[in-house]
Amino acid sequence: MKVIAVYHNKGGVGKTTTVVNLAAAIRKRGKRVLIVDLDSQANTTFATGLIQFDDEVFDDIKDSNILHVLQSEEFYTIEEIARQSQFNNPELDVVPSHIDLMQYENELNQLDYSRLILIDKLEDVKDNYDVVLIDTPPSLNLYARIALIAADYLIIPSDLKPFANQGLVNVKEFIKKIDGFRRQIRKESLEILGVLACKISTNSRFIQSTLKKRLESLQNRYGLKVMETVIYDRDDLAKCAEKSREIDGIERVEPQSILDFKPDSMAAREFELLAIEVLRKIGMEE
Question: Dmax over Cα atoms in the chain, in whole Å?
């Protein structure tokens, strides 16, 4: 089982879009996939269709989410908490997040095992999944640390805009600290698969000139590998996440992966290529 974190400390760079559609593309290649949502904004939980309530009274995620996994050594296994999501065919499993994560960070920080609990819980399901994708908060907080400590590999999505690029300095420093902790627990350093260019303009002049310069600058200035695949900013990606239908007078959000929503689209093809690249880099495909 390979564990991949998707992380950048700047928000709005396409992190959730990357996680859910990369997971879908890997699943369609026959791999068993688990998504773990470690962001209190729960965007991935929404994007995979697990939250359907309009009234907090009907919040069925509140008592069974990633927070419970992290709070207990003995109870709340991933097998118990994970839910099957039908946003993709074939289905994949998701450990949902909840806004309550935010208020329990200090409490979890005081637990000696909090940084290691996810490693142990994932070990218990290592025979159930081939790939685990962890969505992370856009911050340097405890939950980001837990994700990067548990992961084998890291993808850094970036829209390549100045603030996102400047944030890579913080990302590199954060990884350095994480690797220091990993050495203490006899774990190898986190392997960075690369910076993934995300939400990139489809303007032909931008692609031919500016994009190339920004990618070169990224490698030269920050010393980070860049992934071969580029994910462009396409309308289909927004539409598939917002898909809904009315049932008995109630509008239900029914997001779909881009590979189900429009399988012949350029966006779907880009995520297929990303899945192939990722699986190759982690040794699961030639």
Answer: 56
